[in-house]
Amino acid sequence: MTPLDEAVSYLQQRLHRTPKIAVVLGSGLGVFAEALADRVEVPYNEIPHWPRSTAIGHAGKLIIGKLGSLEVICLSGRAHLYEGYSPQQVTFSVRVMKKLGVASMVFTNAAGGINLAYEQGALVLISDHINLQGINPLAGPNDDSLGPRFPDMSEAYSTHFRYLAKLVAAELHIPLAEGVYAGLLGPSYETPAEIRYLRAIGADLVGMSTVPEVIVASHMGMNVLAISCVTNMAAGILPQKIHHEEVLETGARVRDTLVRLLREVLPRLESKS
Ligand code: HPA
Fold first, then answer.
1. pTM of the predicted model, to two decimals?
2. CATH number of the domain within which 57 lies
3. How many domains does the chain have?
4. Which residue among 104, 110, 205, 232 is buried most deeply as judged by most CB within 10 Å?
5. Interval between CA 207 and ligand 1 midpoint (Å)
6. Tens of pLDDT along 170-185?
7. What is the extent of the structural domain holding 102?
């Protein structure tokens, strides 16, 4: 059995349930999963071949549970390239989700705000990305059973899902901007010159995750929704340094709003996917 199949069959035995939707919870957002009913939790270190997350603010477990009548899988904590994981390890969880029967992925992350219209704590729907991580997780032999050799990426972030998310946000009176996410390797934050460069090439947000996962999800034909929390304004915008603690604090401050949004958005996505 391949590592992928081993992880999938292990989770099938542990979970006995097959949700159609999975949510990846970024820094400080693990609390979303705690509100689910009939929870089953599987720590990442019990799943064969699953990379353990080492980042602060990432719990490192898979939680399956009910949001009303909707079954969802939450991935609390993710592996990052900056931790030294390979592109294959970083995207392993997305491949497992697909093989478990998940059709739609929702990604959340913390990001630096490049667009000057954003404020710290803003929620931003990702409309597109710029891959500056220096890797592509699809490099190497292509498994044609998963997806095509040269996958189209013109709608990696589902237009329909974005429409639904904006509709729900408006109903809840939650401001939800939209923007382009530049994915960098990290782990150092950017320099002010790099942020000016990113703004010039059309980026509104900058972060160190999500891009490889979305490429792999898109390759396998999954629908993607991604929401960034602007935990800080990017380097050089404000006369202050960026601290990881600040990123976590802002994540914690807006998490209730993001959780409220996710709770209303997820059931709508399922019915349409
Ligand atoms: N840069 C990159 N990644 C980030 C940032 C940032 O400013 N904030 C949160 N994640």
1. 0.94
2. 3.40.50.1580
3. 1
4. 205
5. 5
6. 999 999 999 999 999 9
7. 3-270
